[in-house]
Amino acid sequence: MAKTKLYRPNVAMIVLAPDYQKSKKVFIAERNDMKGIWQFPQGGIDAGEKPKEAMYRELKEEIGTKKVTYIAKYPGWLRYDFPKKIAKRMQPYAGQQQRYYLVRLKKSAVIDLETAHPEFSRYKFVKLKKLFKHVNHFKTPLYKEVLDYFKAEGYL
Fold first, then answer.
1. What is the C-alpha separation between 122 and 111, in angstroms, rounded?
2. pLDDT of residue 2
3. 25, 127 contact by CB (below 8 A)
4. Checking CA distances to 60, which of 3, 6, 29, 44 falls within 20 to 30 Å?
């Protein structure tokens, strides 16, 4: 009998620059445990927590602010399996099941990566059309799917 894979509930946020309409830039950050790996903020959903609540909590925990304007969410959950080198330390989970959100950083927001449990070493805003020159890892297909959806819906 095949063993059922477990997926960790998770949220991921595409954070637009405050001046996105003009700049077309999105936020990415470099993981402090994997040099050269840039990604969108993301994190687990705590027991009893609603995904949107987790979104705001994770933004505060990872980038030091939750001063964002909520725009939209991807309509479904997306899954990915952890690469082999990560999978062992993430047991019993085979991967993550994510809910993606699109938000815009407010002009008054201050990004601070020196949080209680820092996950990122640095950040930058990159042009959306150049995003995949900076982000190229196992989550890339998910990022493309979500961004294509938000573009088709007229959000980007």
1. 10
2. 60
3. yes
4. 6
pLDDT beneath 50, residues of the chain:
none
Which is nearest to 13 in space by CA: 95, 111, 91? Answer: 111
pLDDT of residue 53: 98
15 forms beta bridges with 103
At 141, list the tokens. Answer: 């297909």
What is the per-residue pLDDT for 86?
Answer: 80
Residue 17 · residue 34 · CB < 8 Å: no
* DSSP states along 84-101: HHHHGGGTTEEEEEEEEE
Q: Copy the structure tokens of residue 118.
A: 């820092």
What the block records as the tokens of 95 is: 């991967």
Residue 46, helix vs strand vs coil: coil
CA distance 104 to 126: 14
Return the amino acid letter for 98: Q
What is the pTM (predicted TM-score) of this model? Answer: 0.94
Q: Which domains does the chain have, with CATH numbers?
A: 6-152 (3.90.79.10)
